[in-house]
């Protein structure tokens, strides 16, 4: 379980093609501190398992389905990535409940800078639009953000300087893909309401 509060901006240092998977080596001094085999680390919002750890780098295997369903397949050596360790029991929940299970990908459509913040417009897959509401939470590349405007096929977020400086959203340009995870609470509510309606029939 994660919170969507990125701990550091890491970097892909190696990519090995394993046929039906890829092995990534990533540099992240903060998230590797005390890391061990089997630990979880969110990479651009995707929960990955640490295979090996040496110095300030760790390796993780990414299955073909994850590569196809997320933006991780577009990563290469030198790509910057958002990194976060799982939330510790009893720690403050700074963002919102993030599972690290990507629901789909969007695309940066537009950036509108202003003096103290920037509005970013991102495309939204049709099957996810019902879970996204104004002032609700959404995870973009592992970052917990508040939705400013929600349309049928897009949403916007407002980014403060800290987010722009310390995450990949400061680097993304129109056309770049991003991982999306909608608020899991919305999915549970939908499932429960659907079960209730079915019971009434």
UniProtKB/TrEMBL annotation:
Q: Where are the Lumazine-binding repeats?
A: 1-96, 97-193
List, alphabetically, the PROSITE patterns matched: LUMAZINE_BIND (PS51177)
Q: What sequence ranges are listed for the domain Lumazine-binding?
A: 1-96, 97-193
Catalysed reactions listed for this entry: 2 6,7-dimethyl-8-(1-D-ribityl)lumazine + H(+) = 5-amino-6-(D-ribitylamino)uracil + riboflavin
Q: What is its EC number?
A: 2.5.1.9
Q: Which InterPro entries match?
A: ATP_synth_asu-like_sf, Lumazine-bd, Lumazine-bd_dom, Riboflavin_synthase-like_b-brl
**Protein's UniProt keywords contain Repeat:** yes
Coiled-coil intervals, chain numbering:
none
- For this UniProt record, give its keywords in alphabetical order, as a comma-separated list: Repeat, Riboflavin biosynthesis, Transferase
**Pathway given in the UniProt record:** Cofactor biosynthesis; riboflavin biosynthesis; riboflavin from 2-hydroxy-3-oxobutyl phosphate and 5-amino-6-(D-ribitylamino)uracil: step 2/2
Check the record and name the NCBIfam families matching this protein.
PRK09289.1, PRK13020.1, ribE
Q: Which PANTHER family match?
A: RIBOFLAVIN SYNTHASE, RIBOFLAVIN SYNTHASE ALPHA CHAIN
Function, as annotated, reads: Catalyzes the dismutation of two molecules of 6,7-dimethyl-8-ribityllumazine, resulting in the formation of riboflavin and 5-amino-6-(D-ribitylamino)uracil.
Q: What is this protein called?
A: Riboflavin synthase
